[in-house]
Amino acid sequence: MSSRLLEVSGLTTRFETRSGALNAVEDVSFSVSEGEIVGLVGESGSGKSVTGFSILGLIDPPGRIVSGSVKLNGRELVGLSHADLRSVRGREIAMVFQDPSATLNPVLTIGTQMRLAIAAHESMSKAAATHRCIDVLTIVGIPDAARRIEAYPHQFSGGMRQRVAIAIALLNRPRLIICDEPTTALDVSIQAQILTEMKSLAARLGTAMIWISHDLATVSSVASRLLVMYAGRLIETGPIAAVLRQPHHPYTRGLLNSLPGFAKPGQDLVQIPGAMPSLVNLPVGCSFRPRCTHAQDDCTLLPAFATDGARAFRCHHPLDLPVPASEARP
Amino acid sequence: MSETRALVEIDSVSKRFTPSVSLGERVAAWLGSPIDTRTVHAVDAVSFDIRNGEVLGLVGESGCGKSTLGRVIAGIHPPSNGSAMIDGLAVMGSGSKPLKTTTRIQMVFQDPFASLDPRVRIGETISEGPLAHHLVSKVDARAYVTRWLLAVGLPAEAADRFPHQFSGGQRQRVAIARALAMQPDVLVCDEPVASLDVSIQAQIINLFLKLRRELGLTMLFISHDLGVVRHISDRVAIMYLGRIVELGPTPAIFANPRHPYTRALLDSVPKLVTGSDELVTFKPIQGELPSPLSPPSGCHFHLRCPFVQARCSTEPPQLDGRHHAVSCHFPLSDGE
């Protein structure tokens, strides 16, 4: 195992809303090793994006991180001053967002924006900065980068714009890139290009990634480890192929069964009944209990995060455990 | 053979959008300034049938013209050329005045947040069309709305609520109820599950399957999601830059794609990886979708096609084949 790059423990992010306080992220703990791609999966409102934002300290009032810690190479990020956080953002941890047309400045050329991103962390001559920009644009597969650098975002297609956003994230050689649904807005053929590119980048540059997505199939094709979130809590983690082959948490199983590929064409999909509960008014105990077909009386108590080797889950009645965990690990 | 009768016939439908030129621009043009009057060929001579009781999936990437084609079939846009017929009657002539037959086709849109009027109660939203077309009397409207709400899995009380009181999945149920309340013969669904979460998406797909069984609906199901289309459709049409490149029974299209674009599209879809030592490789399609303002000559796909030959850049291929049709000079052979 390579060394721990990012260590998140007990992270809780709370938002004060008119209808009450809600924990968008509650007691989330995980780690990311150097060069590792971790997939973070959940449905809308599960807290996956807020987890990503919390790592970078991008939580504005009425939200705040109420407890927990985020350590990058042992250095605590929670509670850092704005200035200190700014020196981390972009240089040590970069982020790629879902919609590249919203994250790029429409009135500046790509080159100007990229040079600004370099200037935020390092002083170098314009020529040297431009040189680095062209290098990075070439890495992400933008043809004719030396000329395209003077173009404006609207002159790029959606897929090319996302490549530019990824290039900006790579500019300062960060150790970790948080990718928040980076391919959701793209067509499948362009998505396949970006996925291929990102995987080879991670391998070549040794950059670790947290890949946030709602799409299990996309995540399974890039990540090596999977984190599944439901209603603000992590509910299952483990090596991605093992989790997808044999999920222990009924919600993960339900998500997989919901995919059209899991039923014969034309037959009803196995659906999860109901909808995600409101975070303001979570069910007592396990949040998935009202929708769970395996729920029993003890599910009104919040299950602890149980670990079984490399895998962990938050469930009193996990599915398909090979041997009871207590016997396997005396 | 009533089930093989064509209910919807699309006969070389084209739809072009030409930017309207203002007076100022015309004066500027007269004074010698260049103006942009390029025409977008959104749909280019598309022909196919939808049989009675059939679900036809229409797949393509953004900008390929699939939504425009859906809107032409639903009678929202008049076609520039050709005709869309339902039971032998034109849905809409090439003039702009819609004919009465358009009520026989209803549409469900992608975004249930945008397609429902936020200030109108659900009951009124559902009953407005049927009342206007005398499908139901004012006295019976309430019971009529209840019937359709129950059919899509919503409680009868939903009629008194407003759209904002519902989640995305429930709103899509309302939109489906609104379309069904018109008792259409054909339902055109434009990405009806694209904006929904996976678990909610499964619920809505199951609803479509149930409605289809119970009502014998004929559907055009437009989507970019090949997994969803594969699950719900009897036949699939693949569209690229305004043209149908391949059309055939769903199992044949997925097992033996014959157009290089279909093959590449299928190869681009991420699959769930469950074997730990499986190496995920994509064979991404090279390049990007060309602009529909200036589509490539000949076969529209020839610039990105790995099997391109000289003929492809000059001569547009025709959609050929009865059962499994493909529009390619050099189609891939079965089982290759």
* Main β sheet profile of chain B: 7 strands, mixed
Q: The CATH topology of the largest domain in chain A, please?
A: Rossmann fold
Largest sheet of chain A: 8 strands, mixed
Helical content of chain A (DSSP H or I, runs of 4+): 25-40%
User: What is the CATH architecture term of the largest domain in chain A?
Assistant: 3-Layer(aba) Sandwich
Task: Indicate the proportion of strand residues of chain A.
Answer: 15-25%
Number of strands of chain A: 12
Task: Estimate what percentage of residues of chain B fall within beta strands.
Answer: 15-25%
- Structural category of chain A: alpha/beta
How many H/I helices of chain B?
9
Distance between the first and last residues' Cα of chain B: 34 Å
Low-confidence stretches of chain A: 325-330
Helix content of chain B: 25-40%
What oligomeric state best describes the polypeptide chains here?
A: heterodimer
Query: How many distinct beta strands of chain B?
Result: 11
The strand order across the widest sheet of chain A is 6-7-8-3-9-10-12-11
**Order of helix and strand elements from N to C terminus of chain B:** EHEEHEEEHHHEHEHEEHHE
Compressed to H and E, one letter per element, the order of chain A equals EEEHEEHEHHHHHEHEHEEHHEEH
Secondary-structure-based class of chain B equals: alpha/beta
Residue stretches of chain B low in confidence (pLDDT < 50, at least 5 long) are none
Alpha carbon gap, first and last residue of chain A: 24 Å
